[in-house]
Every structure is written in C-alpha cells, then in structure tokens.
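Hi there,

I know you've been waiting on this one. I reran it after we fixed the sequence typo, so this is the corrected version. Both the input and the resulting structure follow.
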Amino acid sequence: MEEYLRKKTLLIGDVGSGKTRFLVEFLKFLIENSYSDEVTIIDIAPSRIHGVGGSIREYTGHVLRVRYLRLERVWAPRLMGKTKEEVLGYAEENRINIEPLIDTYLSNPTKILLVNDLTIYLHAGDVTRIIDLMNVAETFMATAYEGEKLKDDKNSGITDRERRLLNILKEKVDIIKRF
C-alpha cells in the first residue's frame, strides 16, 4: 500500500468489482501507519440499492478515526430515475449537494484525500473542481465507475459525460488501478 502514498490514483471498474473494498484497505493502512490526522474522506457513493453502491461507512467503522465528509442522501440517478428528466434532476441535485463538501476540503485540506464514487459528481459537476482536489492533496485516491452494468441512463447523456470526464482525469493521475 505504501506505493500509493504521494501519488494520484484512480480505482476504476464496474459495480461490485472491489473498488470500495480496496479504498477501505488503503484507509486501514493509513490508520495503522499513523496518518489518521492527515486523512479526509469525501464519500459521495449512494447507499446500497439493488446491490449497487454503498458508503465507506457501510464497510468499516474506521471512518470515525479520520475527517469524514458525507451527505445524508446521495441519489443513484441511473437506478432511481425513470425518465431522462428524473435522471438529470437527480444528477443536478447531487452536484448541488456535493459542492459544499468540495469547498470544505479545499478551504481546509489534509495531505491525504480519499473520494468514494467520484463519478457521481461527474454526472453534472465541473471536472476542474476534481482536478483542484487532486492538485491540493499530496495523496489522492478515488473510486470511479467504468463499466457496462449501469449504461442505461434513460438517454440523459450522463453516462457519456461521466466517461468523457473520467478520461480527462485519467490523464492527470499517476496510477490507474482497474478492477
């Protein structure tokens, strides 16, 4: 796990591939090696729905030992939206609600930033805000969906947008770990 320190890393894969489990293992490594005070988690994964998603808090209680930024509710636009308009509405509501978490980190950064389900923000958010997060953190690790299981976005375009913006981020990182 030491190889991920002072690096920018994207954990990429389809739903259920182990991205969040790996992020949790890295978190445990950080805590065991006395980095707790230097870690912030921005957890924007929706709660588990139809076996998809899940916050880090659902995997481990270790979140209590670091700065943990989490919304009370995060929508899963492709799973919850029944129409194009609903999908876009959920994506926009997520963006609005996630912005203050980004602002909180940027105004008071730690050396290490972990982001769970980065692609939820990319549905409607500004990729330059994520690049700002990456640039401020000395160590950055984020999970990002890339796969086929959630491709039905009700013709909203969020899947293509997510893929396009994720490709921009791939160019900015040191490590891409595929699951």
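Quick highlight: The beta strands are 8-13, 39-43, 67-70, 112-116, 139-145, 175-178.

Best,
R. S.
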